[in-house]
Specification:
The chain is an alpha+beta fold and 299 residues long. It has 2 domains: 240 residues, Aminohydrolase, N-terminal nucleophile (Ntn) domain (Glutamine Phosphoribosylpyrophosphate, subunit 1, domain 1), CATH 3.60.20; 47 residues, no CATH class. The protein has 9 helices and 15 strands. The strands form 2 sheets. The protein has an 8-stranded antiparallel β-sheet with strand order 3-2-4-1-10-9-11-15, with helices on one face. Strands 5-6-7-8-12-13-14 form a 7-stranded antiparallel β-sheet. Strand 12 and strand 13 form a beta hairpin. The longest helix has 14 residues. The relative contact order is 0.13.
């Protein structure tokens, strides 16, 4: 499981992407990377480690540009190396992608693309998407057609976000999560609403077998056959902005540690009443506990 994120808007992309990746780090943190567009050129920075570690080392959030993509990874194809970390640019560097999922036929596609002169650097299945998109764009010079041809060739379950050299963002979903955030000053694409919820509470959930194209002219949705698709904007709770694990290894541990504060905030319970209840429990002859999920583990 990996986290993917993309941004196009009026702000500086890199700091927004890095902060979103930190919130989604529970989805993977053996490596991290960011790519942004500046001066019609894609610049990629990435490394092995958690978001904060890699950011301190290579200054991910200092990349310039108002369009970009980011990724945190759990290694599946290939070892935990900087080369295997996302984003993956195409051989020419005119396209870069971040990907969550598995491409089942990547070996077959990679061999075909290599025979056509496209170069590969990583051991990942994901890099195939970048070069396949590049190949299709080289042939068509059309982003929509390139997306249609690319998703038609891929086998497996995936969601990916791609940035083109002209500053266009595109993304596709096939049996993996993908959410679009619609903000006043930009658009977001993410595998989790936590990636952008502090910026906007307005979201669009693409259906399976759909892709989206975002540029300065706006946002368009299509099914995998290229037919336009209409979507309604949905509101999500701003409370989700606080639903990230912080310094805890797991959300469950975070929730357990927050139980004392949660109890006090939940109703009319006062600190004095809580202390009195604690004394009753400490001196009780018998104690019976029931619960499920976090409540069960909190005992």
């Amino acid at each position: 499981m990996c986290s993917i994120i993309g941004y196009l808007g009026d702000g500086s992309a890199a700091p927004i992407l890095v902060k979103g990746l930190k919130r989604m780090e529970y989805r993977g943190y053996d490596s991290v990377g960011v790519a942004t567009i500046s001066g019609n050129q894609i610049t990629v920075r990435k490394g092995v480690g958690k978001v904060a570690e890699v950011n301190n080392a290579v200054k991910l959030d200092m990349l310039s540009g108002s369009v970009g993509i980011g990724h945190t990874r759990w290694a599946t194809h290939g070892g935990v190396t900087e080369t295997n970390a996302h984003p993956h640019p195409s051989g020419s560097g005119e396209v870069a992608i971040v990907h969550n999922g598995i491409i089942d036929n990547f070996a077959e596609l990679k061999k075909d693309l290599q025979q056509k002169g496209y170069s590969f650097k990583s051991e990942t299945d994901s890099e195939v998407i970048a070069n396949l998109l590049q190949h299709n764009f080289d042939q068509t010079k059309d982003i929509k057609k390139s997306m249609i041809q690319t998703v038609a060739a891929l086998k497996g379950n995936y969601a990916f976000v791609v940035v083109f050299e002209d500053g266009t963002l595109a993304a596709a979903r096939f049996h993996e999560p993908l959410i679009i955030g619609v903000g006043k000053n930009g658009y977001f694409i993410s595998s989790d609403v936590l990636g952008f919820v502090e910026h906007t509470d307005e979201v669009i959930y693409p259906d399976n077998r759909e892709f989206v194209i975002i540029n300065l002219n706006g946002i368009q949705f299509f099914d995998f056959d290229g037919n336009p698709v209409q979507h309604q904007i949905t509101k999500v709770s701003k409370e989700l902005a606080d639903a990230y694990k912080g310094d805890y290894a797991h959300f469950t541990l975070k929730e357990i540690s927050e139980q004392p504060d949660t109890i006090l905030k939940a109703g009319d319970t006062t600190k004095m009443e809580l202390d009195l209840t604690t004394e009753f429990v400490k001196h009780a002859k018998n104690l019976y506990l029931t619960g499920s999920g976090t409540s069960y583990n909190a005992k």
